[in-house]
């Protein structure tokens, strides 16, 4: 392991490390050898380093590391910079600039899986780990500065000088004087994954008897065909799906629908807000004929609202307009099974896959998630007991999973749809539009013991012209369940490309998630504009454009002002947009560029007039 130490004052820290096994130490300082040797104890430490086989290099500028090491010597596994400072009475701005140039220099000599350790005095870093914490403008803002060079803060812990044998800090105001390191912190940075490259992506799917391709909406480019539910996946959503299915199989005969479910539906569903759907245009020349495409959302009892008056042309027997959208639910596929009479009563049909819904930006609102849908035909009069058996089984599995992860027992409740007291989350609100809901399934964990809706239960007479059967279905949001069970606070982390996420769940084992990106910086921008006269402002489209231009780095959008101009009646809106990434480095200039593109997009796509 190659270790590089920068800015050594008296080389006492380097001397303490030089005895470590399988470690090659390269200790450096900014001063010349003559200047450095004049510090108290430095000459003795330098001799010890050289005697142990370590390299000692002088006059090394930490902002130009590439110039000091040849290409074959640049792969350092760890870089230490203890208590960096510009010298004398330099203020916070100069020291931030020093850190910025230092991190950019580190990026050129650090191994891909390497670490950068920076020790700072109490309060300097500007993170919540500092106690007491300085005001942001008066700190070195180390996490934001490192983000500009592509680094994220992965660990922070006390700098325990007393445990480092022979260590003595020096260099107070560029003098051979010590300084207080009480409360000092060691910040450990690692490389971030690269920003996503959103090149246009085409996707192929089965539509009727024909395979068609379409261009994936930009906001979903990095979320298509991820294979989280595939057999070789160790992703938490697959683990939860498998555990739930195994639990259900102990109470019911289970049949898994393993055929490839179409990604696209056709038509214009009623009862569902059309701005919540991802509308798709097929690649030129690929739209199938009307006869080849069954209506994916017929007038069915499973969806009392979804598709009742799909289109006036359908009712009159006219050709259906070729309008397609990404599936927002797996319910239509369950209905197709019923229509094909491939639905043995008493057998639980299990379907799973990603579904797509436009929604507002919040940490728990996701434009794509994995749905687990179970459907069961039971004898009329037994539906309530079957619902209870189904829910009890799900409760038992979720309880077991959560206790295995955290040792605590979650609160799981079944709430009547008519008496659901708390505000619906986006998942529940969309399911409510589909209709037919009898119960909401809520799971509560600390710090939200009141519960979040993760599933819905429906009951309805079936389509088989039978007066004896009733269809019971349960739809579960596997992504929300994974977040609650594994302590994941932001849905975006489930879709990260950083391998450190899945490495925490070896062979599908569920564990409490530990973030590898601590205290990510956030950047706030406001945007205000005039709304076109006489038009209702589509806030979901506004949020979707923010997702698109930012690559999901907008964490919140808040309406700050709604102003109507006297006399003209013109309406102006002002929103506060907060940029923050949960898994990769995001710099202030990246956020500023995204804000500029966002302003251009809303002007072009929504027809607003910027202020």
Instruction: Give the helix/strand class.
Output: alpha+beta
CATH class of the largest domain: Alpha Beta
Oligomer: single chain
CATH T-level topology of the largest domain:
BirA Bifunctional Protein, domain 2
Biggest beta sheet summary: 7 strands, mixed
Radius of gyration: 30 Å
> Strand order within the widest sheet?
3-2-1-4-5-7-6
What general outline do the C-alpha atoms trace?
elongated
Distance between termini?
A: 56 Å
Domain FDX-ACB: 518-611
Catalytic activity: tRNA(Phe) + L-phenylalanine + ATP = L-phenylalanyl-tRNA(Phe) + AMP + diphosphate + H(+)
Main location: mitochondrion
GO molecular function, one term: phenylalanine-tRNA ligase activity
Any overview of this molecule?
The protein has 611 residues and is of the alpha+beta class. The chain has 3 domains: 2-191, 3-Layer(aba) Sandwich (Rossmann fold), CATH 3.40.50.150; 229-261 and 328-503, BirA Bifunctional Protein, domain 2, CATH 3.30.930; 523-610, 2-Layer Sandwich (Alpha-Beta Plaits), CATH 3.30.70. The chain is built from 15 helices and 23 strands. The protein has helices at 12-17, 33-37, 42-51, 65-68, 92-106, 142-147, 236-249, 312-315, 331-339, 383-406, 426-434, 478-486, 499-502, 539-550, 588-606, and strands at residues 2-6, 24-28, 55-57, 76-82, 110-120, 151-158, 185-191, 202-207, 210-215, 254-256, 264-266, 279-280, 324-326, 348-356, 368-379, 411-416, 437-445, 448-461, 469-477, 523-530, 554-564, 571-579, 609-610. The strands form 5 sheets. Strands 3-2-1-4-5-7-6 form a 7-stranded mixed β-sheet. Strands 10-14-15-19-18-17-16 form a 7-stranded mixed β-sheet, with helices on both faces. Helix 5 links the parallel strand 4 (76-82) and strand 5. Helix 7 (236-249) packs across helix 10 and helix 7 packs across helix 12 (478-486). The protein is elongated.
């Amino acid at each position: 392991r190659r270790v590089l130490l920068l800015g050594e004052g008296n080389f006492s820290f380097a001397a303490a490390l030089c005895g470590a096994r399988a470690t090659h130490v390269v200790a450096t300082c900014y001063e010349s050898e003559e200047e450095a040797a004049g510090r108290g104890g430095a000459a003795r430490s330098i001799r010890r380093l050289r005697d142990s086989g370590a390299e000692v290099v002088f006059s090394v500028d930490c902002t130009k590391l590439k110039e000091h090491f040849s290409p074959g010597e640049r792969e350092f596994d760890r870089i230490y910079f203890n208590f960096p400072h510009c010298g004398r009475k330099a203020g916070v701005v100069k020291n931030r600039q020093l850190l910025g140039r230092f991190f950019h220099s580190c990026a050129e000599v650090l191994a891909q899986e390497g670490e950068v350790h920076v020790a700072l005095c109490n309060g300097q870093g500007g993170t919540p780990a500092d106690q007491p914490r300085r005001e942001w403008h008066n700190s070195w803002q180390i996490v934001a500065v490192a983000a500009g060079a592509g680094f994220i803060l992965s660990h922070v812990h006390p700098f325990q000088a007393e445990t480092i044998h022979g260590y003595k800090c020096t260099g107070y105001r560029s003098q051979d004087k010590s300084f207080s390191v009480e409360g000092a912190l060691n910040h450990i940075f690692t490389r971030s994954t690269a920003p996503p490259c959103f090149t246009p992506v085409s996707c192929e799917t089965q539509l009727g008897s024909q395979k068609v391709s379409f261009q994936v909406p930009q906001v979903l480019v990095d979320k298509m065909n991820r294979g989280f539910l595939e057999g070789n996946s160790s992703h938490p959503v697959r683990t939860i799906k498998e555990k739930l299915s195994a639990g259900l199989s102990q109470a019911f005969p289970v049949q898994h629908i393993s055929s490839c479910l179409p990604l696209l539906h056709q038509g214009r569903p009623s009862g569902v807000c059309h701005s919540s759907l991802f509308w798709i245009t097929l690649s030129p020349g690929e739209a199938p004929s009307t006869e080849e495409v069954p209506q994916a959302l017929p007038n069915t009892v499973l969806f009392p609202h979804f598709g009742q008056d799909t289109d006036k042309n359908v009712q009159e027997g006219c050709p259906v307009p070729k309008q397609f959208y990404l599936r927002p639910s797996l319910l239509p596929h369950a209905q197709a099974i019923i229509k094909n009479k491939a639905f043995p009563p008493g057998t639980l049909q299990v379907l799973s896959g990603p579904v797509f819904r436009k929604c507002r930006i919040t940490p728990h609102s996701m434009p794509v998630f994995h749905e687990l849908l179970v459907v069961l035909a039971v004898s009329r009069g037994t539906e309530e007991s079957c619902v209870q058996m189904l829910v009890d089984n799900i409760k038992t599995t979720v309880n077991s999973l959560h206790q295995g992860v955290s040792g605590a027992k979650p609160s799981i409740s079944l709430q009547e749809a008519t008496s659901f007291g708390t505000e619906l989350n986006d998942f529940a609100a969309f399911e409510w539009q589909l209709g037919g809901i009898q119960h909401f399934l809520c799971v509560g964990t600390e710090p939200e013991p009141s519960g979040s809706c993760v599933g819905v239960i429906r009951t309805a007479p079936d389509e088989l012209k039978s007066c004896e059967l009733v269809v019971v279905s349960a739809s579960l949001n596997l992504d929300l369940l994974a977040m609650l069970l594994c302590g994941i606070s932001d849905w975006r982390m489930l879709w990260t490309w950083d391998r450190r996420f899945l490495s925490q769940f070896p062979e599908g084992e569920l564990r409490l998630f530990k973030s590898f990106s601590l205290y990510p910086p956030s950047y706030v921008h406001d945007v205000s504009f005039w709304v076109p006269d006489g038009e209702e402002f589509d806030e979901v489209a506004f949020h979707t454009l923010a997702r698109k231009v930012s690559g999901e780095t907008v964490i919140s959008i808040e309406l700050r002002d709604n102003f109507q101009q006297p006399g003209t009646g013109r309406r102006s809106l002002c929103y506060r947009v907060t940029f923050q990434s949960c898994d990769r480095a995001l710099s202030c200039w990246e956020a500023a560029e995204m804000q500029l593109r966002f302003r251009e997009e809303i002007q072009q796509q929504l027809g607003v007039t910027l202020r």
